[in-house]
Structure formats: structure tokens, C-alpha cells
Input
Amino acid sequence: MKLVVGLGNPGSKYDGTRHNVGFDVLDALAKRHSAPVPKAKFNGQLTEIGVGGEKLFLLWPHTYMNKSGNSVRPAFDFYKLTLEDVLIVCDDFNLPLAKLRLKGKGSAGGQNGLADVIQKLGSDEVPRLRVGIGPPREGADVAGYVLSSFAKVEKPEIDLCVERAASAVEDWVAQGITHTMNHYNG
Output
């Protein structure tokens, strides 16, 4: 049994924003696997799919980005998971648009939702899949940038990236982190 957490902000005003790309990856997985309608659980929305014979829980925290750990920790405890059984999917403005970066551990790298998850789990050894949203313009307000929508010209590229990220999650479940890092981090 594994848990994949897509980081984002709840509410329609955040749909399609750069910061919600983690939610978008979970939406793609849920659609791909005809998941049941998510139910309110663990301060978020939760559904379950099967990937490669493995039970996979998908969790969309509804705590807002900076308090994501308040959703992840209760799910982690309830299912008695190890850190290796959890994958956090989040945006990263330090990566070029549509670039994926999977790591098994490390710092939050300025991603506040990931930082809160690390703090609440008490370890930075939680796997994470970062989805590049591209950097803000020099001097731009970072908060405003991550809460903005993708430009029309960026949409086709980010849509393909979301599907690729969903495939990376499936490979992480079926093949493990080392194989998946080698395949998607290029």
C-alpha cells in the first residue's frame, strides 16, 4: 500500500494555477484508473486506485499549501506507512517548465507545502516528484507567480508534463524509485 499526495490549494479559484500542478497529476491518475469519487478524509479528499497490483491512495490536501502536513500526517499514521511508501507531488519554480525531478530525500527547496510535510513527518527522507513550472520573471512577486495560471502558450507543454508525471508515479509504484529517477530525471 502506498500514498501519493498532490500538493495544491482547494477551491475553484486555484484550478489551473502553477501551484496546483500536484492536484493536476492526481486528477490525471484518477481519470486514467477510473478512480471512485474522492471522499472527505484526512483534511482533504481521498480515493484509491490499483497500480501494478499495489493499492495506491491518492490524497488532495484541503489545508492550503503551507499546511499540507496537517493532511499528510494523519493519513501516514492511519495507514501505518513508512516514508518510502509516500510520494509527494508538487510544483517547483526552480525547474524549467515541464521538467520532472524525482528524489528520495532532501530539502524542501523553497516549496512551503513540502517543507510543512517534512516538518510534520519529522524527516526529509520522503520521496518527492517535483514538476517544473518555470521561474518567475526577475523582480516578480513569487507568491503571485505560483498562484497564476499557465500562459496559453505553456498549456500544451504542461498538460503533456502532467501526463508524464502520472506515468512517473505509476513507475514509482511498479519499478521503485531508482528506476523511475533514472528514467524521468534526464
